[in-house]
Write a structure and sequence with these properties.
seven-stranded antiparallel beta sheet, Diverse_Enzym_Activities, Class A beta-lactamase-related serine hydrolase, 2 domains, Beta-lactam/transpept-like, alpha+beta, about 30% helix, Beta-lactamase, three-stranded mixed beta sheet, globular, hydrolase
């Protein structure tokens, strides 16, 4: 990849190299991570790009064009797709979800039961709106939250493992049988909301989600390596995926050469199903930084992106006040939530270098990105270790990147 001169764009090049030394010493040489890629850019121009470790468990060398499971970094892409439809007035943020997904018309909050007992009749309250899906205030959940009878019902139905089990309609039908965790709009809970949002994109557009992404986001942005399956002839580019084991080497959990991702799935998961490259996701981030446009391709309007990157938690709250999740891809303190992203609303509370208005997200295999509209910095980090909460690498990367910034725009 061609890099711009770091010093010209306000970075200390010597300090940027400390990132590579840190990742090698702390993560690759110790075996904590089998592989990693990092791409840092300013004003859309890459200033630092490095890759580490091996692509496969057989020590196949890491390659610049490696394909990674980006998991929940799919969510911002689905959110952008939905907002394209909002811009066309085909749907509105305050529309009830049941307008597009009528199976949810009778969905209500948990009122008792579950486990060995049937659920009590649901408490009917405010209906889920599309804005509730985008902000994770819908009352939906994930089975892996592992706290409640509702979570347990998700696990029993295998709703977290939807790619090969359900069609989109079957997925909605299964969800409609399980109560919500809470009345929509009253709390924040990391959830399958963006999977439901992706199905709404399909129903409103009349296209399968992967086809919609390709036609309206990926092709315009030149993201030719991002999709819900590995393209024919590209299997050798897919990285192996690993799971954390305390005190032991990571366990291989998805061998790339045999991965289900080499074949079409029944369901395109808008919440976590995409595979892609660091270079492709950099182009998506560059579009976000540039207010919805890149190289002449307008994806969304600037005011649409401003709306998405604003804090939509009630009363300007942060996630410490609203979240009931045991797990999220965001830190809670000083962090708000918009339409598909977390954002920094109080840098001091995060206890990390940051800019107010910076927005970001990550994926279950420890991938991450952020967009800083103040400093004009973007970062894409790729690796393949589940779960993403294993190591504080996102905080460490942010600290190292900002400590290499010699000229601030703030």
């Amino acid at each position: 990849m061609e890099l711009a001169d770091a010093a010209t764009l306000g970075f200390d090049a010597a300090r940027l190299t400390r990132i590579d030394a840190f990742l090698e010493a702390q993560y690759i040489e110790t075996g904590r991570l089998k592989n990693a890629q990092l791409l840092v850019a300013r004003e859309g121009q890459p200033v630092h790009h490095a890759h580490f470790g091996s692509l496969r468990d057989d020590d196949t060398p890491m390659r610049e064009d490696a394909l990674f499971r980006i998991a929940s970094m799919t969510k911002p892409i689905t959110s952008i797709a939905f907002m394209q439809l909002v811009e066309q007035c085909k749907v509105a943020l305050d529309d009830p979800v049941a307008r597009v997904i009528p199976e949810f018309a009778n969905l209500g909050a948990y009122a008792g039961g579950g486990g060995a007992l049937p659920f009590a009749p649901m408490q009917r309250g405010r209906p889920i709106r599309f804005v509730d899906l985008m902000t994770h205030m819908s009352g939906l959940t994930y089975g892996f939250q592992n706290r409640s009878s509702v979570d347990a019902a998700y696990r029993a139905a295998e709703l977290d493992l939807s790619r090969g089990k359900f069609t989109a309609d079957e997925y909605i039908a299964a969800l409609a049988e399980i109560p919500l965790e809470f009345e929509p709009g009253t709390r924040w809970n990391y959830s399958v909301s963006t999977d439901v949002l992706g199905i709404a994109v399909e129903r409103v557009s009349g296209m399968r989600l992967g086809d919609y992404f390709r036609n309206h986001i990926f092709e315009p942005l030149g993201m030719g390596d991002t999709a819900f399956r590995v393209a024919e002839g590209q299997a050798d580019r897919l990285a192996d995926a690993y799971g954390y084991r305390p005190g032991k080497a990571p366990r291989l959990v998805d061998r790339a050469a045999e991965s289900r991702l080499l074949d079409d799935g029944k369901f395109d998961s808008g919440g976590g199903g995409l595979i892609g490259t660091a270079a492709d996701y950099h182009r998506f981030c560059a579009m976000l930084l540039n207010k919805g446009e890149l190289d002449g391709a307008r994806i969304v309007a600037p005011k649409t992106l401003d709306l998405m990157a604003a804090n939509h938690l009630p009363g300007g709250a942060d996630l410490t006040q609203m979240s009931q999740s045991l797990f999220s891809e965001a830190n809670n303190a000083g962090t708000g939530f918009g339409l598909g992203f977390a954002m920094v609303i109080d840098p001091a509370q995060t206890l990390m270098p940051a800019s107010k208005g910076e927005f970001y997200w990550g994926g279950a295999y420890s991938t991450a990105f952020f967009v800083d509209p103040v400093e004009k910095i973007t970062m894409v980090f790729m690796t393949q270790l589940y779960p993403s909460s294993t190591y504080p690498i996102r905080r460490q990367l942010k600290t190292l990147i900002y400590s290499a910034l010699a000229e601030s725009y703030a």
